[in-house]
Design goal:
Blueprint: H1 3-25, H2 30-41, H3 43-50, H4 54-64, H5 69-86, H6 88-122, H7 128-140, H8 144-152, E1 154-164, E2 170-175, H9 184-201, E3 212-215, E4 218-224, E5 228-237, H10 242-256, H11 258-262, H12 275-278, E6 284-285, H13 295-331, E7 335-343, E8 346-354, E9 374-381, H14 386-397, E10 403-408, E11 411-419, H15 420-425, E12 438-447, H16 455-460, E13 463-465, H17 475-488, H18 491-498, E14 502-510, H19 516-536, E15 544-550, E16 563-570
Parallel strand pairs: 8-9, 11-12, 14-15
Antiparallel strand pairs: 1-2, 1-5, 1-6, 3-4, 4-5, 7-8, 10-11, 13-16, 14-16
Length: 575
């Protein structure tokens, strides 16, 4: 053994001795010490080494009070913040099955308030059908929105499909009973193509989604998930809350098949049990039969409409009657109506009235039952209407029956014939007629009045004697009667010429012997017979009056029994 070999052997021996000594002192081998040294120098290696025991260690420290949540919370928040910034979609996919129900529950309260607001808005609508629904809601205790939805919404879901979002492959489908088979694979491919087309054509962001497709009366509702989508084929108009069913279905699929969906390899058999989630979306709402008519509601509606119609008709009729009265009043001479207003239950009519205008209560329209609601406020005037001027002219001048009056442009025009007496005595009064500035008598023929003083003696000299029970005239008496009529018919001219009101008493005498009642009855028959004959001859009623006299009265004699005489008297003074 050389010297060098001896020295090397001594070195190896001392190294072995050192290792043995290290094992005795530390209990670790040389490799373990190197591993420990690496852990102390490399934090990443040290973190990986203690990561399995760190959760348990943290839990122990919290239990012992050595570590508080307040001290850990900032680290957790910072870790979440950095994770969301780095890959927000990853965190959204993880939380999707959990956050969906939580968000939906929070939104449901807002939806309730929204429905209440919508209900208030819907209740503002009015139509006969909606009014019936309101009455039905009133009597059934339901809200108007419930009645409205029950009357309008009807739909049927025929197919529900689960489609892989990235590949567009059909994972599973469920269909309703008696539903027609559809090419579900083609539909899923179509939806994927449409989604990609919309995203590419309109520069939509990656998270944008296609929610609904309308094909005629067919609707395809789509609910998106991180890895899969649910599509429902619907006929009709579904309510808004149906989409909640689709949300719940896609959330349930992701909750139970999150790893399968994320690591999808084309195997669709693992999704057979998703049918229980998709079947919840196969719902069908059909409108119930009409059933029996809501007769109480119909009767109440009819009563309300009749009451409204009756009050409306009464108001219309009242206004029409008041307007007709106002028009007739304004058409009367001397009336000028300016305004008609309603004050409460009264109609106030304002205008002007000539102090000599005719009485308005003669109008037929004034006889309506609601004249108590009319208040006339007419100021007095002197009207210069032609009708009022002529009215005053006739009242002041008192023209003869053969004389007519007309008025034009302030001139009073007289036509016809008049006697000289009236012309001289009455005509000068025209100057007192308001509105008359001149008088025109060129067409008036003025004649001197004839002497008619012989008329009264000519009437009173006639008398007719009759035998017992005789009331008819013989030939001689008929000629006398004609002579009486020739004088009596001029009595009207006599009154006009002399300003008198003379009339004729047809008087028949009888006596009180025998049967007085029979005598009076027979005398009355003679009076009536003569009065009728004189009326037939042309004498007016106001010039004739009959009476029965007895022979024992003054200025009579027994020889006058059954005799008819005539007495002319002034009817204005004596009857």
């Amino acid at each position: 053994m050389t010297e060098q070999q001896g020295e090397a052997y001594q070195g190896m021996l001392s190294q072995a001795q050192l290792n043995e000594l290290r094992n005795l002192l530390v209990g670790l081998s040389n490799e373990e010490l190197k591993r420990l040294q690496t852990l102390l120098r490399d934090p990443h290696e040290f973190a990986g080494e203690i990561s399995p025991i760190l959760p348990a260690a943290i839990r122990k420290m919290v239990e012992r009070g050595q570590l508080s949540l307040n001290s850990v919370l900032p680290m957790i928040e910072e870790a979440l913040h950095q994770g969301i910034q780095k890959n927000p979609q990853r965190l959204a996919d993880i939380l999707f099955p959990v956050m969906g129900p939580a968000i939906r529950k929070a939104v449901s309260e807002d939806l309730k308030r929204l429905i209440q607001t919508a209900n208030a808005g819907l209740e503002q609508g009015f139509s006969p059908k909606r009014l019936g629904w309101r009455l039905q809601a009133l009597f059934t205790g339901k809200s108007y929105t419930e009645i409205l939805l029950a009357k309008t919404y009807i739909f049927h879901v025929s197919h529900v499909m689960l489609i892989h979002r990235q590949t567009g492959l059909l994972l599973h489908q469920e269909k309703a009973d008696k539903a027609v088979d559809l090419e579900a694979d083609m539909i899923s491919s179509m939806l994927t193509a449409i989604r990609d087309f919309v995203s590419d054509s309109f520069n939509q962001m990656e998270h944008a989604s296609l929610d609904q497709i309308q094909v005629g009366d067919m609707t395809i509702l789509i609910e998106q998930g991180p890895f899969a989508i649910v599509a429902a084929v619907i006929k009709g108009m579904p309510p808004a809350d149906y989409r909640v069913s689709l949300m719940e279905a896609i959330e349930a699929v992701h909750f139970n098949h999150a790893l399968d969906l994320e690591n999808f390899d084309g195997n669709v058999l693992v999704y057979e049990n998703t049918g229980k989630f998709l079947k919840t979306c196969l719902v069908s709402y059909r409108k119930q039969g009409e059933g029996s008519k809501p007769w109480p509601l119909i009767i109440i509606l009819i009563i309300i409409l009749l009451a409204i119609g009756w009050f409306g008709f009464q108001r219309y009729s009242l206004n029409k009657r008041i307007n007709r009265f106002t028009e007739q009043l304004d058409a009367l001479p001397g009336y000028h109506i300016n305004d008609i207003q309603r004050s409460g239950r009264f109609f106030v009519i304002r205008g002007f009235k000539d102090y000599e205008a005719p009485e308005y209560k003669q109008l037929e329209s004034w006889k309506i039952h609601d004249t108590g609601r009319i208040q006339l406020r007419l100021d007095p005037i002197i009207s210069l209407e032609p009708a009022m001027i002529l009215y005053r002219a006739e009242k002041i001048l008192q023209p003869l029956s053969s004389t007519s009056l007309d008025y034009q442009n302030g001139t009073l025009i007289l036509k016809g014939t008049a006697n000289k007496t009236w012309f001289e005595e009455n005509l000068p009064a025209w100057t007192s007629i308001p509105g008359v500035n001149d008088i025109d008598t060129r067409e008036l023929n003025v004649k001197s009045p004839p002497d008619l003083s012989w008329i009264i003696p000519a009437i009173e000299r006639h008398q007719f004697a009759f035998d017992v029970n005789i009331t008819t005239l013989d030939s001689v008496q008929q000629r006398q009667f004609d002579s009486l009529v020739a004088a009596a018919v001029l009595l009207t001219d006599y009154n006009a010429q002399y300003g008198k009101k003379m009339a004729i008493f047809v008087q028949v005498y009888t006596n009180r012997y025998g049967n007085i009642e029979a005598n009076i009855r027979k005398a009355t028959e003679r009076v009536d017979a003569f009065v009728s004959k004189l009326k037939e001859a042309g004498l007016p009623d106001d010039l004739l009056e009959g009476r029965v006299l007895f022979t024992d009265e003054p200025s009579s004699s027994r020889g006058q029994v059954r005799t008819v005489t005539f007495n002319v008297f002034n009817s204005a003074e004596d009857r």
